[in-house]
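Before the break, one more example. Copy the sequence into your notebook; we will annotate it together after we see the structure.
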Amino acid sequence: MNSYFSEGQHKNVYEDPAYPDVVFKELKYPRETEDYSDPESKIILHRLLHSIFPEIIPETRSYAEISDDKGKTVKELWVVDKTPLDPDHEEIRRLHAAAKDGGLIADSSTKITQMTARYQEKLERDHRYHRTVQTLKDLGILIDTFKAMNYTLPEQGSQFAVYLDDVEPFHVLYNHLQQPVLHKNYNAHKLRAYIKERTAEPAVQQELLSTVDLLDESILKFAQNNNLPITNNPETYG
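Here is what the structure looks like once it is written out:
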């Protein structure tokens, strides 16, 4: 039976004792067409980034849409490798879970707020956090750098903080004419250059480059199906 693990702005996260190595991310609200969500492109990007940066991006095992009897998507479920949380992060998560079970009281809310603020300060002093942010930023990957709970610090070995949140392949923003435009949240040119420079094995290099092509093709197909022009997010192309 699934039990509450954590939650974000748009999702709840559950764990299941029968599957101790993964967590289940469930979209909190039904996905509507106007949200312009494309799970196919998202899972391609996640698997690509995990292949390049296994220390930063946990592996996405599977994705499923659950529909009602009319064919409308009512739930999205992602299965992702479970990342051990550092002690401070785990304590904040545990307090959130306890508050979820028993109702959030003022003392708990204050303690969670204070601990989260201290954890944010701790992250900003840690070179592993900055290395993760800068590594992804250098490749044009757009991630959330404002919420401390999107990261955790490994106890030893890794030179990176782990990024726990989703990486969106694009956002649809409205231009000055209030027309929707798809903004890609990655820099394909920089990704290809990084893969060619850092991947020694030819077969692995070709597989990664083909995955970048597949991601571009998936987003192009989605944009065409939704009559969306494509541009590059200015935050990823500096």
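Residues 3-232 form one domain. The first helix runs from residue 39 to 52. Try to locate both features in your own notes.
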